[in-house]
Amino acid sequence: LQCVDYSIKRAARMEQVAEMKMVLMDLVVNGITTTDERYVKEKVCSVVCDAVQRCWLQLWSDMFDKWREISATSLHATEMFVRITRNLLQDCIEGSKHLAERRRMDLLLALSLNLPLIVSWLLDTINARLTAFLESRDPQQLAIATLVLECFELLAAWMPPCDFVNANIHALLSQILVHSVCQPLHQPSLRIFTRFLDRKMKSEETVGVISLLDVVSGFASAAPLNHSLDAYSHVCVVTHLLCQSITLRLSAMVRMGGSA
What we know:
Shape: globular
Strand content: under 5%
Helix content: over 70%
Mean pLDDT: 83
Radius of gyration: 20 Å
Number of helices: 14
Distance between the termini: 59 Å
Oligomer: single chain
Low-confidence stretches: none
Number of strands: 0
Structural class: mainly alpha
């Protein structure tokens, strides 16, 4: 894997990397098993992510369509492709020393073009995994749901605020926060709110932010003993950021002559 990774990053031409994509897909689905160590899974995901960074979107235009199709075949494939997506989002949104800035901007543009497809696939994935977890209490379902939430946390810091609100991601988070059995997902869910609200937004971009208040206040007031202190500390941070956003919105309305 180290040799393949080096070849993708340094030696191979873009066309050669593109020719490797089906081999890499087979590696993801059949080359490792669910019992392999986590570091093996992460390394395979890293290799695929490096290949994506070299040849997507130019030589792999149907990548997310293929991922969605293959991930539906097994729980293992779902986990692997969500991991790869998480790694890709992290490198593109937060930056990576192995990714040139010009190439990073190209990938961000490709992500923007495919954003509706990506968000739809992630929402379908986590909804299916939550339903399965509530029925079976299978920890692997919960692990995949956590990975999806990590993807949404990264997207919350980058995607246009109106797209984030319109995607109805907060409805998903509300569903998670009302279930005490989903307690391991409470903090990741609240971190998504924090990442979204902690960004610098123009007053016109805060439209719809107030709809998030019901979700957070509902969680804070429901069955306090079911929530950890860490979760409550996140609620305090989120509530503070919500107040800042709402104040910004109201101030803009007053400046424009509206009624606060």
